[in-house]
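thread from #wetlab-drylab

HS: before we spend reagent money on co-crystallization trials with nicotinamide-adenine-dinucleotide, can we at least see a predicted complex? here's what I'd submit
DV: go for it
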Amino acid sequence: MQSYAMLIDGRSVQTSEQDGVINPAQGAAFATCPRATKAHVDEAVAAAARAYRTWRNDEAFRRQKLNECAGAIQGRVEEIARLLVQEQGKPLQKATEEVFGAMFWFSYFAGLEVKPEILQDDDQKRIQVVHKPLGVVAAITPWNFPVILLAFKFGPALLAGNTIVAKPSEYTPLSSLLVGQILKDVLPQGVVNFVAGPGSVGAELASHPDVRKVSFTGSVATGKKIAQVAAADLKRVTLELGGNDPAIVLEDVDPAQVVDGLFWSAFANSGQVCTAIKRLYVHEKVYAPIVDGLIERAKAVKVGDGFEADTQLGPINNKMQFDRVVSLVEDAKQNGGRIAAGGTPLSRPGYFLPPTIVTDVGPGVRLVDEEQFGTALPVIKYRNLDDALEEANKTHYGLGGSIWTSNLARGEELVQRLESGTGWVNHHMDILPNVPFGGCKWSGLGYENGRWGYEEFTELQVVNAKK
Ligand code: NAD
């Protein structure tokens, strides 16, 4: 079985202990992955700390290197995408788009303008605020978008002058390790390092005394553990965590105009998107046609292996998550929910649950209250908009939310009543390199993307000169 190497101090590193990596479309291991020891983590952090001494000095060189990273990824898109399909499950076209997205993020940060801010410049004094790097950064990522989420962190962290030790998810480590091997030929030794293994390797990395910042994307439970560990020596953290995004459809919509957008905002990447629509509130006047439209689409979608040309949705990424989504659907059924489409796993190897539309559920049912992160969507009928907004906000999550309406101005006003990091109107899940992205409440701390994402990887210094 093929294995991919970790990257430490510019060297490809293998380990005697290996973990199988499962192809979720088959439910069987197709490759193995190294498992880092504490010594590997220590070596990787030490290498990043050494590289930091020079990497931090020359911004023009860093920009040039970020552009070269984008070019190197572009040259290997197909190879990375194919590996991503094997370990993550998504359709090849979507995997290809994800890798192009990562390339685009590197290019964006290569060109992001960052200037010192001059607060005073007169006869007496010049006072400037400059951004300085933090040092060694840990980048810990989940399994739903392993490649682009690396780029969300690498672009701004490297531009700012930090060096990195990355720890990808144990479910999808190989595409990240391959990116590491590609970047090895572009970046100076030690600037980026990759270690692999389970959560315990992430914990080792996050608690390392020479790591000055942890940039984490993953679940709320792990995010809280990282915040605790970071508090002990005041490491900086950015936490991009889970969501249970509500979408509220107003009575004034034309169902035919919105149903496609609603369906794909819930089921893209088989629902495994932090900002997927996870609770759909629909006004009673348009409820029936919207539900009918969702059912029609759910039944028409081709679910299958990501390598089959007509596949639109792949499997759920791993057995644990698959069992969880199936059990949430079962629980909804037992609590009065009606399965309007889907609901039964495909009888074939792998973790396939076709798009499942559940009606007749409300608060108190786990599928509504918890983050499902898979192919099941509760559709909740409402009469009074204030009640729907209140229900939508009655959660610890606060990642995204949306209002769907034919009245744009009303949508823009109403969406501000949602307690969410992003409020979309008439779409959902639109994430861009130049627009800040983050969650409120338990959905996170801090932001990624744009100058806000860059600033998260910096510290301010005030330069105050008397003339
Ligand atoms: P997870 O928290 O289980 O794992 C994420 C990463 O953390 C993995 O690499 C894992 O090995 C590592 N890890 C586990 N325990 C650790 C510890 N104690 N210390 C340090 N690292 C540790 O999350 P997951 O199941 O891989 O991802 C799914 C979750 O991620 C969902 O909740 C989803 O909403 C969220 N997510 C959020 C965003 C966002 O930007 N807000 C984006 C994608 C996914």
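DV: Residues 403 and 413 are 10 Å apart (CA to CA).
HS: ok that's useful, forwarding to the group
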